[in-house]
From TrEMBL, chain B:
PANTHER family: CORNICHON-RELATED. InterPro entries: Cornichon, Cornichon_conserved. This is Cornichon family AMPA receptor auxiliary protein 3. One of its GO terms (biological process) is vesicle-mediated transport. It comes from Pipistrellus kuhlii. It is found in: Membrane. One of its GO terms (cellular component) is membrane. Keywords: Membrane, Receptor, Transmembrane, Transmembrane helix. PROSITE patterns: CORNICHON (PS01340). Belongs to the cornichon family. It is a multi-pass membrane protein. The chain crosses the membrane at residues 7-29, 80-106, 145-164.
């Protein structure tokens, strides 16, 4: 009885009070839409995006710390004075940006690690260093590192990763021992970014620095800092540096002492070599000695931890004293620092008694003891040691005491403790006690600083908002996955579902798994080490119980370390499983063995299905397409087996026989569109290399073949069926170019749009597909590993919502060019050209599956993106491209009280275009918190917004647009009211938000004014649907630009704060808020909307700017339609162009540039993006805040 | 002791209820199969497995579809249940009818409130693997099984009662 009675009301409830946030928080309770058959499914299209594409070969490489690459724009972070001073002084000392972390790091051990890791790409070009693990003093290290690297370079020179690995294999590299193919790093994308004020090594610098704060929270003044630094950097060259590296491995000392002495010396090495039948390539032998040398050092180091325990207590006490100030405006008394250590010592005892050898964890800290200990007491006397916990990376944790709590609680207290707690990720037995401690810290980090939204006028930071850094200890932070690939909406995971529900925030992951990476360790190994029960890949967050066993961090099963894994071929050392690259990098790529394939890896197969009806010929896209194809034919990713084919269609379907040997392409016409068949069994898909001449002939002829066609019908459905038949033996990629509504055969569509309803405020209909033909076809294609990419180039309504299904469910991507015409609309034509270039040459993975695993207790429920969900955690992706993003909603099924860390792992198994099976694994590690305040402190507002946008798209398709809009508003109302109820001491009449959430209302307002969700403004249905498709499949970085554009003033670009990219100076103007009040008639502004750039030129803009940059003498002479900036030989032109190019390079969808004059009609386009302003249909930002406040008070 | 119409209704319901129980069990098995795809973990990544798995999902979804010439399970279940209600209405068995009416309404709601675009499928292959949906469907099936089992015994009791009492 319960089902009938219970369910409908539930659905009804969900409808009456739409809450996206609630939906996320309470799991099943309010998934988008009515309960039983909820939303339209987890399949959407992805919008790929060409830009920063590097050559395939370059993207596989050994990372020397891949986190390093992210921070493109860190120049002018909102540091406050002290920080700034500190940094500038500090970094000037460093000679090279890559090396900077060295000075930053206090723990010498860590320093070593970096000493090895970071300089590598610059020094040798190839960086196998990370494979070496960290074992030896810096000086040694450097030698040992660079030597093998050079040897590897020699041996595997050239960018061809594949050849490198295969050659190694062919040399008979030992079958049992993992071989690491190393490819050279040619840093294409971020080659030489240097920051004048903040070096590129930043994140590390900060992180290391942070950790330092944790352990020795120090007073805030510059002097003390510098002294600190010098003091600390000194110990680094000391002969026995601390085994900081163990730290990363979460504790190894327990076993390490005996075993190292056994395995360290060269003899062991020799044994190993003998074991493997002398099959090591001779070139690799060079480093042996040096490695052996370096190995001996760790042996001595390992002896230290036991001795150093007193030191531990002091060092730790310093940390604890800082992190445990119980009350707000309270000096941290020395007393506290005395009492705290005892507690921590107890912990330490517990730790050491526990099986998994935690002792070495504290051990690294004692080593720098001579330096830190004297300074350590300092913080305890300082009133406000807050601030430096997260100097720049996380604005949330920044300096600046909360105005309301001017006493200021030391933020290191907050962060420091967590770091300590998380040093023992694997140890559940401890976490509860640690968790208990964490409750004591009443410290309030900056991200919790209450912000009065209605009074704070400049809420938008002037620099790009960065992802918050999970509050982990320094090693884990360093190892953690880059936020560019993997982000969670809450960087502090709440302990229970109840807590999550209370916080009213969406919990989910945002993924960009196949992103183009400049540094990626590629591992060839016969056995890929995985957990036996949950099949998790070994990752940096597992704990090694002893040398032979490791504990899975997702299911906690204890697994054996296979013999092969004991050997580290890069350092040629034995018995250091924790130094293998799998355990050193959270993003790795495995070359899979034949276990991972049933059939031989498929070749790259490309089929182009082209609309050649009258409409299409009129639009003239064929010329552009054929031209791009001809240019990029050799750059299509693939190997010698690559195959290509063409199908064109109007009311009939035309196949092209391109068999090698024919004198010219042969056209075969099938007019029976009701029962499509293939005219010949083979030779329609031909080998690219064998038939290249014929293909070129066809591409040259194609644009003119149909110029006189009078056929207006389009039989898209039958053409797709034919394509499916053609592709099903192999799988591959189908690119469909369509210019109108399909009007014949299966899958024909009628126009459903009522133009009068475009600006309706009430109902927006037809967001869902009209027929399930395309969905079924996509599912069939997905089953045959075929992805369908749709290029819709139409001037009229073409029912994108139905057509998009062909890409959504087959993991394709969707491109839409409204009112495309090759001559009348040159900007769109250029956009198509640029995007085709990216599309044709970008990396591609075939027959992919992506599995997302998470720590026991968490579960995934809804997926967003373009794919087919094959199992509850397995996404089937016929193709994967570097521009595809995904989102996953999570719920907490069991309490996470017994763990202090949770991990998420995505494993993407795909066939590369070279016919290799590869697995790309990303692992993200996040802390678990038990208090609501901590949950709010860790909100990643951008990730949350992107997840909400995805949920809102589902909701608007499954129920209605207005419902989705209400749900978005409710998400803000709920989370802010939940927050204000936790903050008791603030009167409820004001609208406050924690600093971490201060942009939340603004972003939601931006979403409401986004094309996908706006009402009241005239929006074509296809535009709206396309925006929704983009929300579903764009990765976070690009989606954020789309939701909330960036506005810059560009008529006064200065070199101040500029960054250097590829020897070019790129100015970094501050981001202005999106309001007309920021526009002045004297200025010129650039708005970056993701796929469109607008340059708005004010009426009385300086003529010199117009002349120097736009190339016209004065404002009046600027043409109405201007889509290009001329390259002029002036400084300001150079600056502007380099800035725009820099913005463009960072994204995959090539943006169109429009120059908008102040009085031109096009300015409405520009002004509708000023989302903080009032329009006739929508609130201004201030009104929106008042509305929210009203809702909260209700 | 008389063979009334009510008694006949209960006898027929008894038989049909057994069929409904079968349907419910079948649903449970189907959803369970959808949920657990762990025959061989290493097999997960196989493209061949992908096809097989997709087929499997589609097969199950198609079996669960509402209207179909063959092997449709949803519509027979709904119609059998509606038949019960009509029979009890005719037999003026108000209590039994009252017990069944909520489920009847639920079935109506379920039937007319399609999940997505396609009018044919009660379960959408791309959407059904959503863990939320799946667990909902599973719960639904279990609840129905319990309901049918209870009503089976209830009908048995009522049948005997009507046969004896009249």
């Amino acid at each position: 009885m319960s089902a009938p009675a219970g369910s409908p009301p539930r659905a009804a409830g969900a409808r009456s009070q739409p809450k996206l946030g609630g939906a996320a928080a309470s799991g099943a309770a309010a998934g988008p839409g009515p309960a039983p058959p909820p939303q339209n499914g987890p399949a959407q299209n992805q919008m790929p995006v060409p830009s920063a594409y590097e050559l395939y070969s370059q993207s596989y490489s050994i990372p020397s710390g891949h986190h390093f690459q992210g921070p493109g724009k860190m120049t002018s972070l909102p540091l406050d004075g002290q920080c700034g001073d500190y940094y500038s002084g500090f970094y000037t000392a460093s000679t090279q940006n890559a090396v900077t972390p060295k000075t930053t790091h206090q723990p010498p051990g860590a320093e070593q690690v970096y000493g090895r890791l970071l300089p590598a790409p610059h020094s040798a070009g190839s960086t196998p260093e990370c494979f070496q693990g960290a074992a030896s003093p810096a000086s040694h290290l450097y030698v040992s590192a660079s030597q093998p690297s050079s040897s590897f370079v020699n041996h595997y020179s050239g960018p061809a990763m594949y050849s490198a690995s295969s050659s190694a294999v062919s040399q008979g590299f030992p079958s049992t021992c993992g071989h690491y193919a190393v490819s050279t790093v040619s840093n294409a994308v971020y080659p030489s970014v240097s920051y004048p004020s903040l070096p590129a090594g930043e994140p590390y610098g900060q992180q290391m620095f942070t950790s330092q704060n944790a352990s020795t929270v120090r007073p805030v003044r510059d002097n003390s800092f510098s002294s600190q630094n010098t003091a600390l950097s000194r110990p680094s060259p000391l002969p026995p540096p601390p085994p900081q590296q163990y730290h990363q491995q979460h504790s190894l000392s327990g076993y390490s002492i005996p075993s190292w002495s056994a395995s360290g010396p060269p003899s062991a090495q020799d044994n190993l070599i003998r074991n493997h039948a002398g099959s090591l390539p001779p070139a690799n032998n060079n480093p042996t000695n040096t490695v052996a040398d370096s190995l001996s050092c760790p042996v001595t180091q390992n002896v230290q931890p036991p001795k150093s325990s007193p030191v531990v207590s002091t060092a730790v006490s310093a940390a604890s004293s800082a992190r445990l100030p119980p009350t707000a405006n309270h000096l941290v008394e020395p007393v506290a620092s005395v009492t705290q250590p005892s507690e921590l010592l107890q912990q330490k005892d517990m730790l050491s008694s526990s099986a998994s050898s935690p002792a070495p964890d504290p051990a690294p800290e004692p080593d720098p003891s001579p330096a830190p200990v004297p300074t350590a007491p300092q913080p305890s006397k300082v009133a406000k040691p807050f601030g430096y916990g997260y100097p720049t990376l996380q604005p949330g944790y920044q300096n600046a005491a909360a105005p309301l709590h001017s006493g200021g609680q030391p933020s290191p207290g907050y962060s420091g403790f967590q770091q300590y707690a998380q040093q023992y990720p694997g140890m559940n037995q401890l976490s509860s006690s640690l968790g208990g401690l964490s409750l004591q810290s009443a410290a309030q980090p900056e991200s919790l600083r209450p912000v009065n939204l209605t009074q704070e006028r400049n809420i938008l930071p002037v620099t790009p908002v960065l992802a918050p850094v999970p509050n982990l200890n320094l090693e884990l932070k360093k190892l953690n996955c880059s936020p560019d690939s993997f982000r969670c909406t809450l960087t502090n995971i709440p302990q229970t579902q109840a807590l999550l529900t209370k916080a009213k925030l969406p919990l989910g992951l945002l993924l960009h798994p196949f992103r183009d990476l400049t540094q990626l360790p590629v591992i060839t190994s016969n056995t890929i080490v995985r957990c036996r029960s949950c099949r998790t890949y070994i990752n940096p967050f597992v704990s090694f119980i002893d040398q032979r066993r490791w504990k899975c961090n997702l299911c906690y099963r204890v697994n054996d370390v296979p013999e092969e894994f004991m050997y580290n071929p890069l350092t040629r050392s034995y018995g250091e499983p924790h130094k293998r690259p799998e355990v050193q990098n959270s993003t790795v790529e495995f070359i899979a063995s034949s276990d991972y394939m049933l059939r031989p890896p498929q070749p790259a197969v490309y089929l182009f299905v082209l609309d050649v009806s009258h409409n299409a010929v009129e639009a003239g896209y064929l010329t552009i397409l054929c031209q791009s194809l001809l240019e990029n034919l050799d750059k299509l990713p693939g190997d010698s087996r690559t195959r290509i084919g063409f199908v064109t269609f109007d009311s009939t379907i035309h196949f092209y026989n391109l068999q090698d040997g024919l004198s010219q392409p042969q056209m075969l016409i099938v007019s029976d569109i009701d029962d499509v068949f293939l005219p010949t069994p083979d030779s329609l898909l031909v080998n690219l290399h064998e038939s290249k001449e014929l293909i070129k002939d066809l591409l040259n002829a194609l644009p003119n073949m149909f110029t006189n066609t009078r056929e207006t019908h389009s039989a898209l459905g039958p053409a797709l069926q034919a394509a499916f038949k053609l592709m099903s033996p192999t799988g591959g990629r189908v690119s469909v170019f369509q210019t109108q509504l399909p009007s014949l055969g299966a899958g024909l569509l009628q126009s459903r749009e009522d133009p009068n309803q475009r600006s309706s405020t009430k109902v927006v209909q037809h967001l869902g597909p009209a027929t399930d033909f395309y969905k079924k076809l996509a599912l069939d294609c997905s089953g045959q590993q075929t992805a369908v990419d749709l290029f819709l180039l139409s001037s009229q309504y073409s029912d994108l919502s139905s057509l998009a299904c062909m890409s959504k469910y087959s993991a394709g991507c969707i491109y839409y060019y409204p009112s495309f015409h090759s001559t009348h609309n040159p900007s769109q034509a250029e956009k198509l050209q640029n995007e085709l270039k990216r599309y044709l040459t970008r990396k591609i993975g075939f027959e992919a599956v992506m599995r997302i695993r998470c720590t026991k207790g968490l579960s995934m429920h809804t997926f967003h993106g373009n794919f087919f969900v094959r199992s509850t955690d397995l996404l089937s992706l016929a193709n994967i491209n570097p521009d595809a993003g995904f989102a996953v909603q999570l719920s907490i099924e069991e309490s996470l009280a017994d763990t202090s860390l949770v991990c998420f792992q995505t494993a993407l198994l795909y066939t590369s275009s070279k016919g290799e099976r590869r697995i790309r694994v990303h692992t993200l590690c996040l802390p678990v918190v038990s208090s609501l305040a901590d949950v709010y402190a860790g909100v990643d507002v951008q990730a949350a917004i992107c997840l909400l946008a995805n949920m809102a798209v589902d909701r608007s398709i499954s129920t209605s647009l207005s419902d989705a809009r209400d749900a978005l508003v409710n998400a803000v109302v709920d989370s802010l009211s939940a927050y204000s109820s936790t903050v008791s001491n603030i009167q409820h009449s004001v609208l406050i938000a924690p600093s971490s959430l201060k942009l939340f209302p603004l972003y939601v307002l931006a979403l409401l004014k986004q094309k996908a969700f706006r009402t009241g403004t005239s929006t074509r249905l296809d535009d709206r649907v396309y925006a929704m498709c983009q929300i579903k499949c764009q990765p976070l970085v690009h989606l954020m630009k789309m939701i909330h554009p960036n506005l810059y003033r560009i008529d006064r670009l200065m070199d101040e704060g500029a960054i250097h990219v590829n020897d070019r100076v790129v100015p970094q103007p501050p981001i202005q808020k999106l309001s007309a009040e920021k526009l002045t008639r004297e200025g010129a502004f650039l708005m970056d909307c993701g796929c469109v750039f607008y340059i708005w030129v004010g009426k009385s803009c300086d003529n010199t700017f117009i002349e120097d940059v736009l190339g016209y003498p004065n404002f009046a002479s600027i043409p109405q339609k201007m889509t290009h900036l001329p390259e002029l030989d002036t400084l300001s032109s150079e600056r502007t162009i380099s800035f725009i190019t820099w913005l463009r390079d960072s994204r995959p969808l090539s943006p169109v540039l429009y120059v908008v004059k102040d009085e031109s009609p096009a300015k409405t386009e520009f002004f509708q993006h000023l989302i903080e302003d009032r329009t006739e249909a929508a609130f201004s930002y201030y009104e929106f805040l008042l509305h929210i406040q009203q809702q909260i008070c209700k | 002791m008389a063979f009334t119409f009510a008694a006949f209704c209960y006898m027929l319901s008894l038989v049909l209820c057994a069929a409904l129980i079968f349907f419910a069990i079948w649903h449970i098995i189907a959803f369970d199969e959808l949920r657990t795809d762990f025959k061989s973990p290493i097999d997960q990544g196989n493209p061949g497995h992908a096809r097989e798995r997709l087929r499997n999902i589609e097969r199950i979804c198609f079996l669960l579809r509402k209207v179909s010439a063959r092997a449709a399970l949803v519509l027979p279940e709904y119609s059998i249940h509606s038949l019960f209600c009509i029979m009890f209405l005719c037999a003026q068995e108000w209590l039994t009818l009252g017990l069944n009416v909520p489920l009847l309404f639920y079935h109506f709601w379920r039937y007319f409130h399609c999940p997505a675009d396609s009018s044919e499928l009660a379960y959408d292959p791309p959407a059904v693997m959503n863990a939320d949906t799946l667990s909902y469907c599973q719960k639904e099936a279990w609840c129905k099984l319990a309901f049918y089992l209870l009503s089976f015994f209830y009908y048995l009791y009522c049948m005997i009662y009507t046969l004896v009492s009249s």
